[in-house]
Amino acid sequence: MRGLMIILRDIELRRGSKLLLEGANVTLQPGQKLALIGANGSGKSSLFAMLLGQLQADAGDIEGMNNLRLAHMAQEVATTDETAGRYVMQGDARLAQLTADLAAAERDGDFQRAASLHTAMEDADGYSAERRVQRLLQGLGFAEDAAGRPVSDFSGGWRIRLNLARALMTPSDMLLLDEPTNHLDLDATLWLEQWLLSYPGTLLMISHDRDFIDATCERILSIEGGQLQSWKGNYSDYERLRAEMLANQQASFEKQQQRIAHIEDFVRRFRYKATKARQAQSRIKELERMQQLAPAHIDSPFDFVFPPAGKSSDPLLRLDEANLGYADTPILRNVSLMLRPGSRIGLLGKNGAGKSTLLKSLIGKLPLLAGTRTPGEHCRVGYFDQQQLEALDLRASAVLHIQRLSPEAREQEILNFLGGFNFRGDFATRPIAPFSGGEKARLALALVVWQCPNLLVLDEPTNHLDLDMRNAMEMALQGYEGALILVSHDRHLLRNTADELLLVHDGLVEEYEDDLKAYEKWILASYRSSDKPAAGAAPAADVSRKEKRQQAAAQRARLRPLQQDISKTEQAMTAAEQALARLQEQLADPELYTDGSKEELGRLLKKEGELKTQAEQLEERWLELQQTLEELNAELAAE
Q1: Residues 6 or more apart in contact with residue 54 via CB below 8 angstroms
Q2: Are strands 317-326 and 329-339 parallel, antiparallel or unpaired?
Q3: For 63, how many CA atoms within 13 A lie in the half-sphere containing its CB?
């Protein structure tokens, strides 16, 4: 590792007419691990682009970057039929070149050159490369056969994981990671923590996951008011120091008092109840920190609450002896779960265990394979997952999205509501097409809140949200009176909003009687044990290349009809989405919302509902086919 300091001196950085940084100064010591934080749009990604040489500073100097080996996590992956293992291995460009040169030398019979290349491969630790790629993929939650599958087989979120694996494979003196946990579940997040702790170079990371920052970083860089401020310690230290700095400013502590009241109420109810004692103890510790930490977020632009849920049912929703899965293949068996008003459940479980399957089955999006689903008479579900962002109409404004849900609502009422999510002025009334991922996630959450659900079903709701928005959502959820069931890799959110934990594993859903810290230890222990070779395992070299080719050909033959069905479904989904987009373009016409166009508006809204239903059915079919494909891949890998 090259031991050079990186110095940013009097940096000015603009994007268009917006001034992001002015006179910014900071020094990064070699080997430091730093988190770069700041509100969405403050300039974090632009600063990364500048360090990578993709964007030039408008003024100022950068020292120490010459000849520095940089690795970074790209945010997009081009569709390619190259295998995932090969794609990740190419993160080490020198090793990839050596491998290609060695293959060419052996093919041409140039044994003298091949001998020297074998020596170079040994020096580059090239013969362990496949094993290192496999460990990276498994640690990030990929199935065992993933290395041999083409990149084009994977969805967008999994391709981002491949980019992360490729960045970790790259030999580097400095590693730049932009929201590395956004597409990870909790298990993969814990594995990544351990990997980063052993990384010897300088780490600069954009993240809004406070527990992840606490576990991996020793210094915080915050972008505030166009300046780069350096804070010693992790995020919890930053929050405390910033709170002390702001303590003398005039501020309202109503948020703090509300949060304290909710925690005290939980402690009173559950402190001496055996099944909740551990959770209550964690809340007591949170309460002890509250007085000094609350001021750190007093200048947050977000302030929203869940409105009263109104009439409710008890139970709100229940599953009885249910089998859940896709295409007649159960993933979870004999699931019985009752959600009552006030239930606050966090789901734990390894990637692929069935957490999202359980949530989709609960809301009725995925039909049960057996058993019964019984919603209460007054059950109103609010559901959020990352696909909600893709369903947003890019041509419509935030205001229009809500008007479509509630045509009778007054515009000022809608504007006031959206202001709590920091959609103000023109930002609330212009098309959302240029919105960032975080802004779209905020809007999707706002649409859920607007509908006054009494049952919230949230699947990774914090992806793309900055720390202030996460804090506002946590406080809103603490004041929420309905039932909540939540999947999240954000442990801080889980600790402070869920009162009970369920573990999804081995096809079952069971109560988890311990706390999150115990779960973390269990996961990390399983990763450590998985690094050891299985007793009696046959070495991979025992399988001939010819046999591998034959196996691969047979596997492709079995998969081809299913892949063709998936392709046809994708084409139908595209056609439905295009028809819906054309209809929503019509619905964006303000003239439709005048008194003389009510009949036409009603017809178009009805057609919009039909197209959305068609799109959802096609999506469910696509999910079923993808699940069947994954199961067949797993079956073939086991043969």
Answers
A1: none
A2: antiparallel
A3: 10
* Confidence band, pLDDT 50/70/90 cuts, at residue 244: confident
Residue type, 431: P
Q: How many residues appear in the chain?
A: 639
Q: Which of 102-106, 186-190, 254-258, 539-543 has the lowest mean pLDDT?
A: 539-543
Picking from 49, 67, 66, the residue whose alpha carbon sits closest to that of residue 11 is: 49
Asked if 509 and 337 count as a contact pair (C-beta separation under 8 A), the reply is: yes
In order of 145, 170, 296, 376, 526, the CA distances from 130 in angstroms are 13, 14, 46, 53, 21
Name the pLDDT band for 539 (thresholds 50, 70, 90).
Answer: very low
Q: What percent of the chain has pLDDT over 70?
A: 84
**Which tokens belong to 638?**
């086991």
540 pLDDT band (50/70/90 cuts)? very low
Is residue 184 classed exposed, middle or buried when 0-12, 13-18 and 19+ CB atoms within 10 A define those classes?
A: buried
Give the pair of three-digit tokens for residue 251: 């501020």
Q: Which contacts qualify for 614-618: CB closer than 8 Å, 24 or more apart?
A: 614/576, 615/573, 615/576, 615/577, 615/580, 616/365, 618/569, 618/572, 618/573, 618/576
For tokens 């869920």, the residue is 498
Geometric angle at alpha carbon 163, from 629 and 347, rounded to 5°: 60
pLDDT tens, 327-360? 878 899 999 999 998 899 999 998 888 999 999 9
Whether residue 454 contacts residue 312, with contact meaning beta carbons closer than 8 Å, is answered with yes
Confidence of residue 1 (pLDDT cuts 50, 70, 90): very low
pLDDT value at residue 298: 55
In the β-sheet with 202-206, what is the strand arrangement from edge to edge?
Answer: 70-72, 174-178, 202-206, 33-37, 219-224, 227-232
One-letter amino acid of 277: A
Yes or no: say if 141 and 184 are a contact pair by the CB < 8 Å rule.
yes
8 Å CB contact between 132 and 195: no
Q: Which amino acid is at 63?
A: E
**Is the CB of residue 133 less than 8 Å from the CB of residue 92?**
no
Phi, psi angles (nearest 5°) of residue 340: -115, 160
For residues 93-126, b (16+ Cβ closer than 10 Å) or e, as one string? Answer: eebbebbebbeebeeeeeeeebeebbebbeebeb
